[in-house]
Amino acid sequence: MTSASCATPLKTLLNPRSVAVIGASEDQTKFGGRLYKTLLQHKYAGEVYPINPGRDTLFGLKTFPSINATPKAPDMVIMALPRDKVKGEIAACAARGAKAGIIITSKFSDAGPEGLALEREVVAAAAEHGMRLIGPNCLGLISPTNKLVLCSSPALNVPSLIEAPIGFVSQSGALMGTLFDRSYGMGIGFSHCVSVGNQADLELCDFVEFLIEDERTQVICSYVEGIKSPQRFVELARRARAAGKPWLMVKAGATDDGSRAAYSHTASLAGDFAALKAICERENVVMMDDPLDMLSLARAMVRYPARKVRDVAVITTSGGGGAISADQLSHAGIGLSRFNEATRTGLAEHYSEGQASNPIDVGGRKHEGTDELGVVTAELALADPATDLGLMVLTTAPDVPGLTRQLADGGERPAAAGKPTLYVMLPGRVAAPAREILVERGLPYVDTLAEAMAVLRGWKTWSTYQEPDAPVRPAGSAATAAPADGTLGEAASKALLAKAGMPVNGERLVRNADEAVDAAGTLGFPLVLKVVSPDIAHKSDVGGVALNIADAHDLRSRLAAMQASVAKAAPDARIDGYSLQKQESGELELIVGVRRDPQFGAQVVVGAGGVLVELLKDVAVLPAPIDAAAARRAVEGLKVAPLLRPYRGRGALDVDAVVDAIVRLSWLAHDLEGGAAGRDFEIEVNPLKVRLQGQGAVAVDARARIG
After folding, report:
1. What is the distance, to the nearest Å, from the Cα of residue 682 to the centroid of all Cα atoms in its chain?
2. CA nearest neighbour of 195 among 51, 35, 41
3. Which band of pLDDT confidence, cut at 50, 70 and 90, is reported for residue 262?
4. Cα-Cα-Cα-Cα dihedral of 106, 109, 112, 114, to 10°?
5. Mind spelling out the 3-state secondary structure of 495-554?
6. For 224-241, what is the mean pLDDT?
7. How far apart are CA 427 and CA 538, in angstroms?
8. Alpha helices in 550-601, H assignment, sequence order
9. What is the pLDDT of residues 464-519, one digit of tens each?
């Protein structure tokens, strides 16, 4: 299948000179009827060829009985035909010379193997003549920039389209229509909206590439269910960043249930959410939970291009609203700006004592103050160097529209330096006129504090992005050759780690009590004893781990108890012996591991270890290999990170040693992946015991699977 860049450019495909609507009708209960009417309603400037063998005219335009009867080959065709007619119609359109086609029809790859086979035949029929396809199982496209609407959603039954530099690519057609409807009411417009459906030919990355290159798009939004081209996705994320175009994304499939829903919907494998999230964090693709919040952020970003947001000033009509806003900002990791002396002095002229700080409650005004208090307040707060954004939290008040207008006037004055504002319109119908004022001025607003926090979190994520350093292999760490395919026991796993330069504890494999006592003389007490079996994954679950073995007598006793426990709990397990290990102490247990994600390659996992792994699920995932700074940020972002710092008389732990272990493990993952294309692997160290600063860290248990 040829890529879009090798065929007709998408810039041309999405701005066709002529469109054929196959199945055109005046019946608004039919897809073809709604498509045809909507195309005409929004004043598409090109030629329109309605295809309907049963009518001479439709809405005043001459119809044609088939695609072969049109005066010339259309640039674009769109159809919503029964599934069994699609292949023949696409073949005819391709042979006629159509450059692109949109297939609304579903029940192809989204309906199982039979549909997938037919879908591939449809794509092949189009590709034979160089025709590109959008869909199937999509809802078409909406391009306000080109005044082109090829979508049957009732959301398009509006007087005119709102054009704005926001591009939106969605794997769900119904979601695209719904978001267009909600956005329209909020004054949010678009450059182009595309529903890609099953992505049988043209796919998400093709349209993202187009939006990166499109001079009329500033912010890219996407709803994603599955990534077809992982490496291209990474490349495009870097290109978007280089072009200064924020890329915002909502990804379905963050949970197991969500993944199943995504597959049944568009036959797109949701992939590993954690791996994708790690890639997005590295490349500054901002992941969000709610599509409408994503579009609200996009609207704010195009209104205030290139503005960075870290700390905000809150202006509110309610003391309670201000307090709740401050709490939610803290939870969201957004700072309250700390006003300088000049700002506080300026506000003190208009507010009672104690009311001139952040948040600012306009209800705390002095009675002899100005009637234009909103203007003055917004101007002063936004002019302060510490303020990145003004968060206007409006509650039910005597004149919500009037105050909204004042705040807008103040925020748009030169002294405010063009800083962003975001309005939170908490009232219902009382605030309707105020919302209209904001829409008229193109100012971003949301209706709840939760929505505001989502927008600000996403904006701060984009604002605080740090370009990663190029990973550097640690000193004295040569490339590690991969062992043969198979499951490695603990000893072999640790040997592999030791080759990569990770510290591991000493051990000996013993088969009976006499060998154990003999080995103990070399290792020295205290000791740890573990059962060695390829059939036992979690040794502690079957009584296969003994700690704090103090002497030879204790060793014999504990080994006998372990043998009895394992025989009872896992009678069919093959026992290869027992690992006798030097017991290592530590102040904190972490888990570090690597694996190969089938889409994005080698990944590093770090988190709370020991028995807390499944309980806390406190992990960070990063693409491998990584630099030391990225490893440190990951460790310091864990929930257990406070335990690495000094407390109650205990010193700080050796974070440097943890970072070094993670970096070395990431390079091991890099080496394993590079040894054989597509080779699978998984290595887990649990626990990595972390000691006090300067005393290092040591891996005391590990397992690995290669291939």
Report:
1. 24
2. 35
3. very low
4. 90
5. HHHHHCCCCECCEEEECCHHHHHHHHHHHCCCEEEEEECCCCCCHHHHCCEEEEECCHHH
6. 95
7. 55
8. 552-569
9. 999 988 999 988 777 888 788 888 888 889 999 999 999 998 889 999 999 999 99
Handedness of CA 125, 127, 130, 135 (dihedral sign): positive
Crossing angle for the helix pair 400-411 and 432-441, to the nearest 10 degrees: 20
Q: Which domains does the chain have, with CATH numbers?
A: 4-300 (3.40.50.720), 304-463 (3.40.50.261), 506-582 (3.30.1490.20), 588-706 (3.30.470.20)
For residue 132, pLDDT over 50 is answered with: yes
Specify the DSSP class assigned to residue 46. S
- Residue 383 has a pLDDT of 97
- Nearest-angstrom CA–CA distance, 355 and 350: 9
The model's pLDDT over 521-578, given as tens digits with 9 standing for 90+, comes to: 999 999 999 999 988 878 888 999 999 999 999 999 999 999 999 999 999 999 999 9
Query: Residue 263: is its pLDDT beyond 60?
Result: no
Dmax over CA atoms of the chain, in Å, equals: 101
Nearest Cα to Cα of residue 38 among 177, 156, 119: 156
From the number of C-beta atoms within 10 Å of its C-beta (0-12, 13-18, 19+), residue 254 rates as middle
CA 417 – CA 300 distance, rounded (Å): 16
Say what percent of the chain tops pLDDT 90.
79
Is the separation of the CB atoms in 535 and 574 below 8 Å? yes
Please state, in angstroms and rounded to a whole number, the distance separating the CA atoms of residues 263 and 639.
32
Cβ pair 83, 122 in contact under 8 A = no
The CA-based angle 227-252-259, given to 5 degrees, is: 85
Q: For residue 230, is pLDDT > 80?
A: yes
Residue 271, pLDDT score: 43
Using CA atoms of 594, 597, 600, 604 in order, give the dihedral in degrees to the nearest 10: -20
CB 543 within 8 A of CB 561: yes
Question: Nearest to residue 534, comparing CAs of 696, 313, 703?
Answer: 703
Give the containing element (helix H, strand E) for 321: helix 319-331
Give dist(CA 692, CA 672) in Å, integer. Answer: 31
Q: How deeply is 299 buried, as exposed, middle or buried, from its count of CB atoms within 10 A (0-12, 13-18, 19+)?
A: buried
* Structure-token pair, residue 98: 């159509």
- Closest C-alpha among 263, 309, 304, 312 to residue 286: 309
- Separation between Cα atoms, residue 1 and residue 128, nearest integer Å: 10
* Cα separation, 620 vs 146, whole angstroms: 43
Check residue 4 and give its pLDDT. Answer: 42
